[in-house]
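Per your request, structure below.
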């Protein structure tokens, strides 16, 4: 398996055709076709089904693409870093974060770090919590900002924060007139919720069940709180979300209201346990904590209490805020 073969495969996947891939790679169409065919012969299965000049990825092609793109991205980073070293440039900050933390905390934290340490190249990727953890463990990034759980061997958790989830409503929603939203009221409405069943969604479902939500309108599930806000603004339902997204990217026409039930959102900063942090990364971890601490209701927890926090964050918690 050669680098050129993976590049040809990824280019065909990205453009949807051999012709487009050839233009992207500045190679001839027969050369790109040959590289893909050589790769297929090497791995022993077809990556595309072919119908004349048009190609359609096979199921195996989709499965391989994610790993191929990750490998090519790592190689591109090596090439870029080699050039930066030759020029004497500062080492870039390689960061990964869930969308909520990337929107709600990272911009302010990066601004604070650059004021102290000067501007540096930054490569920021947003991903699911599981992908953020994988990027940190694999060394693809130097620092991750992620929701809990974060108990993975090889990770250093620098701090754990907690914020109460909020109801996100259209400003003309009748419930928007209330200072605090009863969760039982939301249980009767169409809910826009996160699709990951093991994090915030798990705590929300437990509290809704306790509120008597045995039957409700069909859910809208999404993997992005920014998507959820846009769906609420369109009048498709109401949402229970962490407050970070609305803090970093508020949408006109929406209001946030506290809930009568405490549904905690836990999050933190992680780095590879085996790698010492540079001064800039240490400053960034601290700046992220300061940015989080500036939000109303923020609570910081000892990282040693991680397992207990998850155990104690289930139902039967009423908000006293």
């Amino acid at each position: 398996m050669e680098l050129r073969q993976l590049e040809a495969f990824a280019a065909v996947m990205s453009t949807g055709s051999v012709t487009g891939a050839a233009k992207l790679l500045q190679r001839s169409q027969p050369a790109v076709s040959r590289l893909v065919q050589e790769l297929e012969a090497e791995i022993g299965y077809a990556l595309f089904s072919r119908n004349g000049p048009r190609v359609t990825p096979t199921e195996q092609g989709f499965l391989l693409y994610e790993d191929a793109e990750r490998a090519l991205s790592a190689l591109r980073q090596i090439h870029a870093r080699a050039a930066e070293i030759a020029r004497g440039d500062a080492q870039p900050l390689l960061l990964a974060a869930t969308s909520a933390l990337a929107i709600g905390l990272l911009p302010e934290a990066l601004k604070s770090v650059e004021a102290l340490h000067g501007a540096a190249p930054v490569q920021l990727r947003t991903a699911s919590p599981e992908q953020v953890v994988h990027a940190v463990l694999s060394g693809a990034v130097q620092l991750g900002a992620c929701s809990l759980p974060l108990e993975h061997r090889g990770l250093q958790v620098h701090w754990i924060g907690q914020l109460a989830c909020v109801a996100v409503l259209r400003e003309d929603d009748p419930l928007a007139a209330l200072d605090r939203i009863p969760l039982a009221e939301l249980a009767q409405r169409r809910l826009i919720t996160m699709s990951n069943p093991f994090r915030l969604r798990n705590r929300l479902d437990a509290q809704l069940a306790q509120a008597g939500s045995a039957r409700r309108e069909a859910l809208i599930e999404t993997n992005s709180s920014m998507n959820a806000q846009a769906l609420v603004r369109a009048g498709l339902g109401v949402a229970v979300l962490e407050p970070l997204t609305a803090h970093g990217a508020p949408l006109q026409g929406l209001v946030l209201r506290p809930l009568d039930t405490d549904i905690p959102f836990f999050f933190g900063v992680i780095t590879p346990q085996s790698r010492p942090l540079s001064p800039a990364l240490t400053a960034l971890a601290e700046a992220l904590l300061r940015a989080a601490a500036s939000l109303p209701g923020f609570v910081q927890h000892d990282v040693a209490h991680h397992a207990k926090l998850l155990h104690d964050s289930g139902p039967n918690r009423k908000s006293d805020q």
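Residues 315-321 have pLDDT under 50 and may be disordered.

Regards,
D.
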